[in-house]
């Protein structure tokens, strides 16, 4: 069982991802934006961070940048439904910021499970 922190501002999606990961046997904490995620990361060291890239207050790109400055080694799965404005899709920038795996929304639960197993190994 791994400790996973899931970060997304869409509460319904956040709850669904958390429930699914719990069914897979993981201990899950959630946060609604990057600022809350940084606080949660300071309180406990997860084995995996799953974060949306488009969020208010502090988005996932800013969160990944902050983790890099802090020297964090927590592996990251980045997810996004697209760019907020024309230009580079945030998923294209995510690997350079430390994301190990990217998921484009909408994704299936099987795709999520495969991404988690790719990072953590089979449950």
Can you put this structure into words, describing what you see?
With 123 residues, this protein is of the alpha/beta class. Helix content is 41%, strand content 21%. Strands 2-1-3-4-5 form a 5-stranded parallel β-sheet, with helices on both faces. Strand 1, helix 1 and strand 2 form a beta-alpha-beta unit. Helix 2 packs parallel to helix 3. The longest helix has 13 residues. The protein is globular, with a radius of gyration of 13 Å. The protein starts with a strand and ends with a helix. 35% of the residues are buried. The mean pLDDT is 93.
In short:
The chain has 123 residues and is of the alpha/beta class.
> Which whole number gives the mean pLDDT?
93
What is the strand arrangement across the widest sheet?
Answer: 2-1-3-4-5
Shape: globular
Q: What summary fits the major beta sheet?
A: 5 strands, parallel
Q: Helical stretch count?
A: 5
Q: Supply Rg.
A: 13 Å
Structural class of the secondary structure composition? alpha/beta
Low-confidence stretches: none
Helix content: 40-55%
Q: How much strand?
A: 15-25%
Number of strands: 5
Q: What order do the helices and strands follow?
A: EHEHEHEHEH
Distance between the termini: 7 Å
């Amino acid at each position: 069982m791994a400790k996973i922190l899931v970060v997304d501002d869409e509460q319904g999606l956040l709850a669904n991802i958390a429930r699914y990961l719990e069914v897979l046997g993981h201990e899950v904490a959630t946060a609604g934006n990057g600022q809350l995620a940084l606080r949660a990361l300071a309180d406990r060291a997860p084995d995996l961070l799953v974060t949306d890239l488009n969020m208010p207050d502090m988005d996932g790109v800013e969160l990944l940048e902050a983790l890099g400055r802090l020297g964090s080694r927590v592996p990251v799965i980045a997810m996004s439904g697209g760019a907020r404005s024309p230009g580079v899709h945030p998923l294209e920038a995510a690997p350079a910021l430390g994301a190990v795996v990217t998921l484009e929304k909408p994704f299936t639960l099987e795709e999520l499970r495969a991404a988690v197993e790719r990072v953590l190994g089979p449950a």
